[in-house]
Design brief:
275 residues; mainly alpha; MetI-like fold; 11 helices; globular
């Protein structure tokens, strides 16, 4: 009963928004400005239909998700080890802190012109000397990868530092007294204790990476992805495709966030018991 009540309350605002949307769509009667709700949902329930000769929604989602996953994994691979070092050792913290504090406030999107100038339209396949390819790697531009990496890195890095700094000294001291090596200390004490904070950083970083990809896909050289589809449909005044793409962005972002949240809940339940 409580779950049903929660669902009903959660649906109130979306239903109101849909009603207002439909009212003004009928009033304006201009699909190039504001399409009706059923036009947008018709696009959503046919995800395999070809859109403006660019492919279907499934293809664009797959391309965008692949780009995000690559950039996000790179951010995690770099951010977590550096965060563990900076959180544990004062020397590393002093080394990284000035440059991190300078770069962190910069919006990832502000790096797009820089990424265009440095990486141009080179893709992952070009790095390995392949000039032409039909694989998914041909759609992963280095500039996009850089911008996504930048967006995901800082939440992961900073939350990892916070997690390591929050480890109780009594745990560390007890392990050292029992003869634990530095490697064992990291594997058995520091990493498990800081894991909830790290997963929080991963959740935030993944969300930022997914937001950044939409802007990154508007870069020259992009020919697929949800961001590209939004710009292309805007140029052709296909607002039903544009708004359907926006809804897909929100749904996919929610799913990605939910996956990380489930993982975080599964690994941090013991902290709640400890408190």
């Amino acid at each position: 009963m409580k779950t049903l009540k929660t669902i009903v309350i959660g649906l109130i605002l979306p239903v109101i928004i849909l009603l207002i949307w439909e009212y003004y769509a009928v009033k304006f009667n201009n699909p190039a400005l504001l399409p009706r709700v059923e036009m947008v949902f018709d696009r959503l329930i046919h995800p395999f239909d070809n859109l403006l000769n660019t492919g279907n929604f499934v293809r664009h989602i797959f391309v965008s998700a692949t780009r995000v996953i690559f950039g996000f994994l790179l951010a995690a691979i770099v951010g977590i080890p550096l965060g563990l070092l900076a959180g544990r050792y004062l020397l590393f913290h002093r080394l990284f802190n000035p440059i991190i504090e300078i770069l962190r406030p910069l919006c990832p999107i502000a790096w797009i012109p820089f990424a265009l100038a440095i990486f141009k339209t080179y893709t992952v396949t070009n790095v390995f000397g392949v000039r032409y390819s039909t694989s998914i790697f041909e759609h992963i531009q280095l500039g996009m990868l850089f911008v996504i990496f930048y967006g995901g890195f800082f939440p992961i890095f900073i939350n990892t530092i916070h997690g390591v700094s929050s480890v109780k000294n009594s745990y560390v001291e007890s392990a050292l007294v029992l003869g634990a090596t530095h490697g064992q200390l990291f594997r058995k004490i520091i990493l498990p204790s800081s894991l909830p904070a790290i997963l929080t950083g991963l959740k935030v970083g993944l969300g930022v990476s997914w937001m950044v990809i939409i802007a990154a896909e508007m870069m020259p050289g992009s020919d697929a992805g949800i961001g590209y589809l939004i710009m292309f449909s805007y140029e052709l005044a296909e607002m039903d495709i544009l708004m359907a793409s926006m809804i897909i962005i929100g749904v996919v972002g929610t799913i990605l966030s939910g996956i990380v949240k489930v993982a975080a809940d599964q690994t941090s339940f013991w902290q709640a018991k400890e408190r």
